[in-house]
Amino acid sequence: MKKHGFIISMAIFVIVLVVGFISMMSRVASPKKNVIKIGLCLYRFDDTFISNVRQEIEEYVKEYEKEHDIRINLEVVDARDNQNTQNHQVERFVSLDYDVLLINVVDRFAASNMIETAVGANIPIVFFNRKPVDDDLNRADNIYYVGAGPKAAGIEQAKIIINAYNENPYSIDIDGDGVINYVLLEGEPSHQDSLVRTEWVIKTLQENNIPINKLNGAIGNWERAQGSALMEDFLNKYSNIDLVISNNDDMGLGAIDAIERANNIKGIKVVGIDGTKEALEAINEGKLLGTIESDKKEYAKAVVEIVMYAIGKSELPEDIKSKLMENRTYDVGQIPRIK
Questions:
Q1: Angle at 293 between CA 290 and CA 294, to 5 degrees
Q2: At 138, is the secondary structure helix, strand, or coil?
Q3: According to CATH, what is the number of the domain 35-147+296-334?
Q4: What does the pLDDT look like over 147-191, one tens digit per residue?
Q5: What fold characterizes domain 150-294?
Q6: Where does the chain hold its CATH 3.40.50.2300 domain(s)?
Q7: CB-based contacts of 323: which residues, under 8 Å, 6+ apart?
Q8: Among candidates 19, 47, 21, which has minimal Cα distance to 224?
Q9: Residue 33 CB neighbours (<10 A)
Q10: What are the residues facing 225 on neighbouring strands?
Q11: pTM of the model
Protein backbone atom coordinates (compact mmCIF):
# COMPACT_ATOMS: atom_id res chain seq x y z
CA MET A 1 0.00 0.00 0.00
CA LYS A 2 2.81 2.37 0.92
CA LYS A 3 4.65 1.42 -2.25
CA HIS A 4 1.54 2.15 -4.31
CA GLY A 5 1.18 5.61 -2.67
CA PHE A 6 4.84 6.38 -3.28
CA ILE A 7 4.50 5.58 -6.98
CA ILE A 8 1.46 7.86 -7.29
CA SER A 9 3.29 10.68 -5.50
CA MET A 10 6.31 10.35 -7.76
CA ALA A 11 4.12 10.34 -10.86
CA ILE A 12 2.41 13.53 -9.74
CA PHE A 13 5.80 15.12 -8.98
CA VAL A 14 7.13 14.22 -12.44
CA ILE A 15 4.00 15.58 -14.13
CA VAL A 16 4.34 18.87 -12.23
CA LEU A 17 8.01 19.14 -13.27
CA VAL A 18 7.21 18.47 -16.93
CA VAL A 19 4.32 20.96 -17.02
CA GLY A 20 6.47 23.59 -15.29
CA PHE A 21 9.34 23.01 -17.71
CA ILE A 22 7.06 23.30 -20.75
CA SER A 23 5.53 26.47 -19.39
CA MET A 24 8.96 27.98 -18.74
CA MET A 25 10.24 27.06 -22.22
CA SER A 26 7.14 28.57 -23.77
CA ARG A 27 7.81 31.87 -22.04
CA VAL A 28 11.47 31.82 -23.08
CA ALA A 29 10.69 30.95 -26.68
CA SER A 30 8.08 33.66 -27.19
CA PRO A 31 8.40 36.47 -24.63
CA LYS A 32 5.44 38.78 -24.40
CA LYS A 33 6.46 42.30 -25.39
CA ASN A 34 5.26 45.43 -23.70
CA VAL A 35 2.88 47.43 -25.88
CA ILE A 36 3.13 51.22 -25.74
CA LYS A 37 0.15 53.12 -27.14
CA ILE A 38 0.93 56.54 -28.61
CA GLY A 39 -1.70 58.85 -30.04
CA LEU A 40 -0.22 61.11 -32.73
CA CYS A 41 -2.54 64.05 -33.46
CA LEU A 42 -1.74 66.14 -36.55
CA TYR A 43 -3.41 69.42 -37.42
CA ARG A 44 -3.44 68.49 -41.12
CA PHE A 45 -2.20 65.47 -43.04
CA ASP A 46 -1.63 67.51 -46.22
CA ASP A 47 0.84 70.00 -44.73
CA THR A 48 4.06 69.13 -46.54
CA PHE A 49 6.44 69.79 -43.66
CA ILE A 50 4.27 67.97 -41.12
CA SER A 51 3.99 65.05 -43.54
CA ASN A 52 7.81 64.90 -43.76
CA VAL A 53 8.13 64.97 -39.95
CA ARG A 54 5.45 62.29 -39.58
CA GLN A 55 7.39 59.95 -41.89
CA GLU A 56 10.53 60.44 -39.82
CA ILE A 57 8.62 59.80 -36.56
CA GLU A 58 7.21 56.56 -37.94
CA GLU A 59 10.69 55.44 -38.99
CA TYR A 60 12.22 56.28 -35.62
CA VAL A 61 9.45 54.42 -33.79
CA LYS A 62 10.43 51.28 -35.73
CA GLU A 63 14.07 51.77 -34.74
CA TYR A 64 13.11 52.28 -31.09
CA GLU A 65 11.02 49.08 -31.11
CA LYS A 66 13.96 47.01 -32.36
CA GLU A 67 16.49 48.56 -30.00
CA HIS A 68 14.34 48.21 -26.87
CA ASP A 69 12.48 45.02 -27.82
CA ILE A 70 9.04 46.47 -27.24
CA ARG A 71 6.01 46.99 -29.44
CA ILE A 72 4.62 50.46 -30.09
CA ASN A 73 1.12 51.07 -31.34
CA LEU A 74 1.33 54.47 -33.04
CA GLU A 75 -2.08 55.68 -34.17
CA VAL A 76 -2.06 58.80 -36.35
CA VAL A 77 -5.15 60.99 -36.73
CA ASP A 78 -5.93 64.04 -38.89
CA ALA A 79 -7.78 66.99 -37.33
CA ARG A 80 -8.30 68.57 -40.77
CA ASP A 81 -7.49 71.98 -39.33
CA ASN A 82 -10.42 71.79 -36.89
CA GLN A 83 -9.73 72.21 -33.17
CA ASN A 84 -13.02 70.63 -32.09
CA THR A 85 -12.16 67.54 -34.13
CA GLN A 86 -8.77 67.36 -32.45
CA ASN A 87 -10.34 67.76 -29.00
CA HIS A 88 -12.56 64.73 -29.68
CA GLN A 89 -9.59 62.73 -30.97
CA VAL A 90 -7.73 63.39 -27.71
CA GLU A 91 -10.80 62.43 -25.67
CA ARG A 92 -10.97 59.13 -27.58
CA PHE A 93 -7.28 58.37 -26.96
CA VAL A 94 -7.73 59.09 -23.25
CA SER A 95 -10.82 56.88 -23.05
CA LEU A 96 -8.81 54.05 -24.65
CA ASP A 97 -6.05 54.39 -22.04
CA TYR A 98 -3.30 55.51 -24.39
CA ASP A 99 0.03 55.93 -22.64
CA VAL A 100 1.07 59.26 -24.10
CA LEU A 101 -0.11 61.88 -26.61
CA LEU A 102 1.95 63.56 -29.31
CA ILE A 103 0.11 66.67 -30.50
CA ASN A 104 0.60 69.08 -33.40
CA VAL A 105 -2.11 71.44 -32.16
CA VAL A 106 -4.56 73.11 -34.55
CA ASP A 107 -5.00 76.32 -32.57
CA ARG A 108 -2.13 77.17 -30.22
CA PHE A 109 -4.46 79.39 -28.18
CA ALA A 110 -7.00 76.60 -27.66
CA ALA A 111 -4.94 73.73 -26.23
CA SER A 112 -6.38 73.99 -22.71
CA ASN A 113 -9.25 71.51 -23.21
CA MET A 114 -6.90 68.81 -24.49
CA ILE A 115 -4.45 69.47 -21.69
CA GLU A 116 -7.19 69.27 -19.07
CA THR A 117 -8.42 65.97 -20.51
CA ALA A 118 -4.97 64.38 -20.62
CA VAL A 119 -3.64 65.78 -17.34
CA GLY A 120 -6.80 64.61 -15.58
CA ALA A 121 -5.97 61.08 -16.70
CA ASN A 122 -2.25 61.53 -15.86
CA ILE A 123 -1.28 61.10 -19.52
CA PRO A 124 1.83 63.04 -20.65
CA ILE A 125 1.70 65.28 -23.73
CA VAL A 126 4.49 66.20 -26.12
CA PHE A 127 3.44 69.11 -28.32
CA PHE A 128 5.48 69.76 -31.44
CA ASN A 129 5.85 72.34 -34.22
CA ARG A 130 2.89 74.48 -33.11
CA LYS A 131 3.59 75.82 -29.64
CA PRO A 132 0.75 76.39 -27.15
CA VAL A 133 0.91 79.50 -24.98
CA ASP A 134 3.22 79.33 -21.97
CA ASP A 135 0.36 79.27 -19.45
CA ASP A 136 -0.89 76.03 -20.98
CA LEU A 137 2.57 74.45 -21.24
CA ASN A 138 3.17 75.19 -17.57
CA ARG A 139 -0.01 73.53 -16.31
CA ALA A 140 1.77 70.26 -15.52
CA ASP A 141 5.28 68.81 -15.29
CA ASN A 142 4.50 66.12 -17.88
CA ILE A 143 3.87 68.57 -20.75
CA TYR A 144 6.71 69.10 -23.26
CA TYR A 145 7.28 71.04 -26.48
CA VAL A 146 9.58 70.22 -29.40
CA GLY A 147 10.06 72.74 -32.19
CA ALA A 148 12.47 74.68 -34.38
CA GLY A 149 13.14 78.18 -33.06
CA PRO A 150 11.47 80.74 -35.36
CA LYS A 151 13.91 83.52 -34.44
CA ALA A 152 16.90 81.46 -35.55
CA ALA A 153 15.06 80.49 -38.74
CA GLY A 154 14.38 84.13 -39.61
CA ILE A 155 17.98 85.13 -38.95
CA GLU A 156 19.41 82.26 -41.01
CA GLN A 157 17.00 82.99 -43.86
CA ALA A 158 18.25 86.60 -43.89
CA LYS A 159 21.85 85.35 -44.02
CA ILE A 160 21.13 83.48 -47.25
CA ILE A 161 19.99 86.77 -48.81
CA ILE A 162 22.87 88.75 -47.29
CA ASN A 163 25.51 86.31 -48.54
CA ALA A 164 24.05 86.27 -52.05
CA TYR A 165 23.88 90.07 -52.14
CA ASN A 166 27.42 90.52 -50.85
CA GLU A 167 28.75 88.04 -53.38
CA ASN A 168 26.92 89.71 -56.29
CA PRO A 169 24.42 92.54 -55.62
CA TYR A 170 22.93 92.22 -59.11
CA SER A 171 22.02 88.58 -58.50
CA ILE A 172 19.20 89.86 -56.29
CA ASP A 173 18.86 93.52 -57.32
CA ILE A 174 17.77 92.47 -60.78
CA ASP A 175 17.34 95.90 -62.38
CA GLY A 176 20.39 97.36 -60.63
CA ASP A 177 18.49 100.30 -59.11
CA GLY A 178 20.27 99.91 -55.78
CA VAL A 179 17.22 98.57 -53.94
CA ILE A 180 15.92 95.02 -53.41
CA ASN A 181 12.17 95.22 -53.94
CA TYR A 182 10.54 92.29 -52.17
CA VAL A 183 7.15 90.73 -51.50
CA LEU A 184 6.40 88.76 -48.36
CA LEU A 185 4.37 85.55 -48.04
CA GLU A 186 3.29 84.95 -44.45
CA GLY A 187 1.93 81.87 -42.71
CA GLU A 188 -1.05 81.70 -40.39
CA PRO A 189 -1.46 84.97 -38.47
CA SER A 190 -2.00 83.08 -35.19
CA HIS A 191 1.10 80.90 -35.56
CA GLN A 192 4.14 82.01 -33.57
CA ASP A 193 6.49 81.03 -36.40
CA SER A 194 4.87 83.43 -38.88
CA LEU A 195 5.23 86.42 -36.59
CA VAL A 196 8.75 85.72 -35.35
CA ARG A 197 10.23 84.54 -38.65
CA THR A 198 8.95 87.68 -40.38
CA GLU A 199 10.24 89.97 -37.64
CA TRP A 200 13.75 88.54 -37.62
CA VAL A 201 14.37 88.08 -41.32
CA ILE A 202 13.55 91.76 -41.94
CA LYS A 203 15.35 93.01 -38.84
CA THR A 204 18.51 91.08 -39.73
CA LEU A 205 18.51 92.41 -43.29
CA GLN A 206 18.14 95.96 -42.01
CA GLU A 207 20.87 95.54 -39.37
CA ASN A 208 23.25 94.40 -42.12
CA ASN A 209 22.46 97.44 -44.27
CA ILE A 210 20.85 95.48 -47.08
CA PRO A 211 18.81 97.98 -49.14
CA ILE A 212 15.31 96.48 -49.07
CA ASN A 213 11.92 97.90 -50.00
CA LYS A 214 8.68 96.08 -49.29
CA LEU A 215 6.26 96.22 -52.21
CA ASN A 216 3.54 94.08 -50.65
CA GLY A 217 2.81 91.18 -48.37
CA ALA A 218 -0.06 88.81 -47.71
CA ILE A 219 -1.10 85.79 -45.67
CA GLY A 220 -0.79 82.48 -47.50
CA ASN A 221 -1.52 80.17 -44.52
CA TRP A 222 1.49 77.95 -45.32
CA GLU A 223 -0.21 76.65 -48.49
CA ARG A 224 1.38 76.28 -51.91
CA ALA A 225 -1.86 77.06 -53.74
CA GLN A 226 -2.36 80.28 -51.78
CA GLY A 227 1.26 81.29 -52.31
CA SER A 228 0.80 80.76 -56.03
CA ALA A 229 -2.40 82.84 -56.19
CA LEU A 230 -0.87 85.67 -54.18
CA MET A 231 2.27 85.74 -56.30
CA GLU A 232 0.22 85.83 -59.49
CA ASP A 233 -1.56 88.91 -58.14
CA PHE A 234 1.78 90.53 -57.15
CA LEU A 235 3.19 89.93 -60.64
CA ASN A 236 0.17 91.63 -62.17
CA LYS A 237 0.64 94.65 -59.90
CA TYR A 238 4.43 95.06 -59.87
CA SER A 239 6.99 94.82 -62.64
CA ASN A 240 10.00 95.35 -60.37
CA ILE A 241 9.92 92.40 -57.93
CA ASP A 242 13.44 91.22 -57.10
CA LEU A 243 12.82 88.88 -54.20
CA VAL A 244 10.15 86.72 -52.55
CA ILE A 245 10.58 86.12 -48.82
CA SER A 246 8.37 83.25 -47.75
CA ASN A 247 7.70 82.08 -44.19
CA ASN A 248 7.81 78.49 -45.42
CA ASP A 249 8.79 76.41 -48.44
CA ASP A 250 5.32 75.54 -49.71
CA MET A 251 4.27 79.16 -50.22
CA GLY A 252 7.64 79.87 -51.81
CA LEU A 253 7.19 76.95 -54.20
CA GLY A 254 3.75 78.32 -55.01
CA ALA A 255 5.38 81.66 -55.89
CA ILE A 256 7.76 79.80 -58.22
CA ASP A 257 4.75 78.10 -59.85
CA ALA A 258 3.25 81.54 -60.59
CA ILE A 259 6.56 82.88 -61.93
CA GLU A 260 6.89 79.89 -64.25
CA ARG A 261 3.32 80.34 -65.51
CA ALA A 262 4.18 83.93 -66.46
CA ASN A 263 6.93 82.60 -68.80
CA ASN A 264 8.65 85.91 -69.56
CA ILE A 265 9.77 86.76 -66.00
CA LYS A 266 13.38 86.00 -65.16
CA GLY A 267 15.67 86.40 -62.20
CA ILE A 268 13.27 86.73 -59.24
CA LYS A 269 14.83 85.01 -56.22
CA VAL A 270 12.75 83.05 -53.70
CA VAL A 271 13.77 81.98 -50.18
CA GLY A 272 11.83 79.65 -47.90
CA ILE A 273 12.01 77.86 -44.56
CA ASP A 274 11.51 74.17 -43.55
CA GLY A 275 13.76 72.21 -45.88
CA THR A 276 11.02 70.01 -47.31
CA LYS A 277 12.01 67.39 -49.86
CA GLU A 278 10.31 69.39 -52.60
CA ALA A 279 12.21 72.55 -51.62
CA LEU A 280 15.57 70.78 -51.62
CA GLU A 281 14.80 69.48 -55.11
CA ALA A 282 13.92 73.03 -56.22
CA ILE A 283 17.28 74.27 -54.89
CA ASN A 284 19.15 71.61 -56.86
CA GLU A 285 17.20 72.66 -59.98
CA GLY A 286 18.15 76.31 -59.44
CA LYS A 287 14.57 77.43 -58.85
CA LEU A 288 14.83 78.25 -55.13
CA LEU A 289 17.66 80.38 -53.80
CA GLY A 290 17.69 78.65 -50.42
CA THR A 291 15.82 77.37 -47.40
CA ILE A 292 16.39 76.72 -43.70
CA GLU A 293 15.98 73.04 -43.03
CA SER A 294 14.63 71.92 -39.69
CA ASP A 295 16.51 68.69 -38.99
CA LYS A 296 13.59 66.29 -39.35
CA LYS A 297 15.54 63.26 -38.15
CA GLU A 298 16.44 65.15 -34.98
CA TYR A 299 12.80 66.23 -34.73
CA ALA A 300 11.67 62.61 -34.79
CA LYS A 301 14.34 61.39 -32.39
CA ALA A 302 13.63 64.16 -29.87
CA VAL A 303 9.88 63.62 -30.02
CA VAL A 304 10.01 59.82 -29.59
CA GLU A 305 12.75 59.81 -26.94
CA ILE A 306 10.97 62.47 -24.87
CA VAL A 307 7.71 60.51 -25.20
CA MET A 308 9.39 57.38 -23.83
CA TYR A 309 11.14 59.33 -21.10
CA ALA A 310 7.85 60.94 -20.07
CA ILE A 311 6.27 57.52 -19.41
CA GLY A 312 9.38 56.11 -17.74
CA LYS A 313 10.36 53.61 -20.44
CA SER A 314 13.91 54.83 -20.99
CA GLU A 315 16.37 57.55 -20.06
CA LEU A 316 17.04 60.37 -22.49
CA PRO A 317 20.05 59.94 -24.80
CA GLU A 318 22.75 62.45 -23.90
CA ASP A 319 22.36 64.47 -27.11
CA ILE A 320 18.64 64.99 -26.41
CA LYS A 321 19.06 65.52 -22.68
CA SER A 322 21.65 68.25 -23.23
CA LYS A 323 19.22 70.30 -25.34
CA LEU A 324 16.05 69.80 -23.28
CA MET A 325 15.61 73.00 -21.29
CA GLU A 326 14.33 73.38 -17.74
CA ASN A 327 10.96 74.56 -19.02
CA ARG A 328 10.62 71.22 -20.87
CA THR A 329 11.08 72.70 -24.34
CA TYR A 330 13.47 71.44 -26.99
CA ASP A 331 14.87 73.41 -29.96
CA VAL A 332 15.53 71.35 -33.07
CA GLY A 333 18.65 72.19 -35.08
CA GLN A 334 18.28 74.20 -38.29
CA ILE A 335 20.54 74.01 -41.33
CA PRO A 336 20.82 76.57 -44.17
CA ARG A 337 20.50 74.92 -47.59
CA ILE A 338 21.65 76.55 -50.81
CA LYS A 339 22.88 75.18 -54.11
A1: 160
A2: coil
A3: 3.40.50.2300
A4: 999 999 999 999 999 999 999 999 999 999 999 999 999 999 988
A5: Rossmann fold (3.40.50)
A6: 35-147+296-334, 150-294
A7: 302, 330, 331
A8: 47
A9: 12
A10: none
A11: 0.85
